[in-house]
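sry for the spam today, last one i promise. struct tokens for design, 314 residues
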């Protein structure tokens, strides 16, 4: 039975004392509600203004759905009341389900980032108009790969157990059995490191090409590339405390309450930044979110002026 691996470890207090758990629960509610509201705002705005959606915005939409799913189904609605109560409140089965959903949506976020960056590389091609079949196929691949990595611990490849805060379940990085160690290393390499490496490689190629061939890419596309770069860099920074925590657990290093506290909050807050980054850099997304009319001609004029300045004509 896949429930047999979960002991009563979530009943202990973890590394956080009751006061810190109370504060953590309050902050999780605030950050979770804010992240959920922002992602709902983006998804509803893009659906209502479907005429403004390009393929890069469809990639953003997929990432936003993954962020919203993790926040709502594997985030503050379960972690916050458990933190305030000082222990996991929803039983062994729900703890396993919570860990599964958290793993599922976390992998979906990383894979979505990779394809979002890949879209930037396609975006700078002069003849690129997008391919619906490729988009549908890559989107299905994101969710199928996420399901694959999330479901393996139910078959004794990897293990879900109580997290170090004692308020929810997560992947157990301290496991030392052969199958669990193999899963952790494979997951780290193929579901985390490799997709992020490919994302940064695609962005590097896109930025280099768009700098040298700016008149092909245009100002709007260049701003979209900057928005994607901001999304990936900021989300990676928000995930860094979690990476440090997993490394400490894997190495058997003592975990401080500070790193646990920061990890919980930063993970919950990370879902904010895809929407905020595109709001700041991408005019099409900003118009959709604010309900404004998108004026493409103005962007064409700005692009022509900037191209001539770049070429030394002004």
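last one done:
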């Amino acid at each position: 039975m896949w429930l047999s691996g979960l002991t009563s470890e979530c009943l202990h207090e973890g590394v956080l004392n009751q006061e810190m758990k109370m504060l953590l629960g309050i902050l999780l509610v605030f950050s979770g509600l804010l992240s959920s509201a922002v992602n709902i705002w983006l998804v509803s705005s893009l659906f209502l203004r479907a005429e403004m959606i390009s393929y890069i915005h469809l990639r953003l939409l997929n990432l936003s759905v993954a962020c919203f799913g993790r926040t709502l189904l594997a985030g503050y609605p379960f972690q916050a009341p458990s933190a305030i109560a000082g222990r996991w409140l929803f039983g062994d089965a729900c703890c396993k389900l919570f860990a599964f959903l958290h793993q599922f949506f976390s992998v979906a976020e990383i894979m979505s980032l990779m394809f979002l960056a890949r879209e930037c590389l396609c975006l700078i091609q002069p003849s690129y108009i997008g391919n619906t079949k490729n988009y549908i196929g890559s989107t299905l691949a994101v969710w199928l790969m996420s399901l694959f990595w999330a479901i393996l611990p139910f078959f004794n490849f990897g293990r879900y157990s109580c997290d170090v805060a004692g308020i929810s379940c997560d992947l157990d990085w301290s496991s030392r059995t052969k199958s669990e160690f193999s899963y952790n290393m494979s997951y780290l390499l193929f579901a985390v490191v490799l997709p992020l490496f490919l994302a940064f490689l695609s962005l590097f190629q896109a930025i280099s090409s768009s700098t040298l061939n700016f008149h092909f890419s245009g100002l709007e596309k260049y701003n979209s590339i900057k928005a994607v770069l901001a999304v990936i860099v900021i989300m990676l920074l928000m995930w860094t405390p979690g990476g440090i925590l997993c490394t400490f657990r894997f190495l058997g290093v003592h975990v401080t309450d500070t790193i646990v506290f920061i990890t919980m909050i930063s993970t919950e807050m990370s879902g904010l930044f895809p929407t905020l980054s595109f709001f700041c850099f991408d005019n099409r997304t900003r118009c959709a979110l604010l309900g404004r009319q998108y004026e493409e001609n103005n962007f064409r004029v700005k692009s022509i002026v900037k191209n001539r300045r770049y070429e030394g004509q002004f």
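The first strand starts at residue 160 and ends at 162. ok im logging off now
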